[in-house]
Write a structure and sequence with these properties.
With about 375 residues, the chain is of the alpha/beta class.
Amino acid sequence: MQKMFALFPLLFLAIIGLAAYYMASRISFATGFGKWWLFAGLFVLAFFAISSMMAAKNHFPVLHPMVVLLSAAVGVLLYMLMVMLLTDVVNFFAHFQPKTYGLIVAAGTTLICIYGLVNTACPRLKTIDIELPKLTEPVQIAQLSDVHLGHFRGRRNLEKLVSKVNKTDAQMVVITGDMFESFYNLEPATLEPLKKLTVPIFFVSGNHDMYVDVDSVKQLMRDAGVNVLENSMMECCGIQIVGLDYMRPDDRTIDHMHAGVGAKTIENTLPTIALDSTRPSILLHHNPVGAEYAEKAGFGLYLAGHTHGGQLFPVTLLNDRIFNYNRGLYRYGSLQIYTSEGSGTFGPPMRIGTKSEVTLIRLKPKGI
């Protein structure tokens, strides 16, 4: 395992190099510019663009424009590569002139990226109906997840989400982690829109909250009137709401998002929370893992986020293989799991093949 991780940086550089060489060759064909100069420029741009996503939580506002531009460049380069590959398939039969080839690639990349930006900026309200065991009367819950306040999103974006929630009949709001992704916008004013919600709000932290400063994030949420659940339970509308900090499902699982090794796990934490087995219960955790332990503990519903549904095609295809519960509603035995695609983004501020969502979960008693 250690050898595999040691080889990862070399594999990463090799993939960037191959992609940069291919793209440089095709741009050179379309424009006549020197291939090797293009290769060097694309390689450096791709390397720093991808690296910028990992440094997006930085403390330094002066770096904000650079992070925005480089993170957006990741999406542009990805879809330019895909458009080039598709155009080359067609070009095998059509034999485009260089200028025509270049115009097709430029137009295709531009249209896809504009769609991705608009798609992200316009969150949809998704409504799902779920039967919750032991529930005696209908309850509506609004779920927000992966808002990722930071370089690309701030107070205005949160106002838009709050407005959507306020147009529903939700009786509570749950936020399943990754409220922030950066020290940029990590301030009380950013969360002011939450005070416009007139129903109880419950929050559990995610891995990006942890990367930034989980204690600061939690305190800001408390100051905004939010109930922060830290491996604890509260009740609302007759439902037991249990929230867990970001953690691994068990000691046998490796978490590459840096959940603490040797720290609490879902397996050993849930038994410490006393559930009333005669009443309905919901588990909130950022990452949709540990379903077997949630079912064993007697939960009827597990709400999570984290995956973004893959956010960008073709990552969406990969995510379906990585996560057992990638997006949407699932069942594990008697437990139902809903994974939100989230409203924010990581890296490129684009969504292709997924939607930014605010979820209205309409709970109803079983059999009604």
